[in-house]
Amino acid sequence: MNHFECFKNARKVIIEMLSDRGFTVNDEYKDIDEETLKYIYFIKSYDIVCKKNTDNSQIYVKFIYINKIKPSVLKEYITALYKDILNNDDKIILILQEKPTNTILKIAEQHDCELFDINNLQINITKHRLVPAHTLASDEEVADIMDKYNLRAIQQLPILLKSDPIVRYYNYPSNKVCKITRISETAVESVFYRYIR
């Protein structure tokens, strides 16, 4: 797959991800023809800004076209975004060309910034036929689970790591419970609960 196709697929998955997270994605990001996309890719400048449906917070998605990004350059990007465009409660997603190093991951964590390798955004994993539906369990559901299974703490549930692809896709917070609904071939619905750590 060439670099342009990789960019095009990642852009599509990011737009779906933002919608699934409850952000309003304007048509100017969705309805782009192939020629315009090629031009955007050629000039290496593509950012997405969306507002949350429930409050006024924003998310800023920046595609970084540098193959091996230096920590100092990443810090400059993040600092400039918060200085010029974003508020402290807004979020940033950076799309990198390669898997991030440990130093880059630490910088992103310090600034509460999400990083994705462009190669991991080639398909929308939530639309795969083998991936069951994932949602956050409500407080009432958690109380029912704890009562039903006689749990003293939600940490006694099986664990779903914060690094899990689905948890990263939805950006589910730690210390919450994820409800996983599987539908079998016999049309029986099975519900599982996992503690996000």
TrEMBL record:
GO cellular component: RNA polymerase I complex; RNA polymerase II, core complex; RNA polymerase III complex
Gene3D superfamilies named in the record: RNA polymerase, Rpb5, N-terminal domain, RPB5-like RNA polymerase subunit
Pfam family, one: RNA_pol_Rpb5_C
Signal peptide span: none
The UniProt record lists the keyword Signal: no
Domain RNA polymerase subunit H/Rpb5 C-terminal: 123-196
InterPro entries per record: Arch_Rpo5/euc_Rpb5, RNA_pol_Rpb5_N_sf, RNA_pol_subH/Rpb5_C, RPB5-like_sf
Gene Ontology BP terms: transcription by RNA polymerase II; transcription elongation by RNA polymerase I; tRNA transcription by RNA polymerase III
Keyword flag Transcription: yes
Key words of the record: Transcription
GO molecular function list: DNA binding; DNA-directed RNA polymerase activity
Protein name: RNA polymerase subunit H/Rpb5 C-terminal domain-containing protein
Origin species: viral metagenome
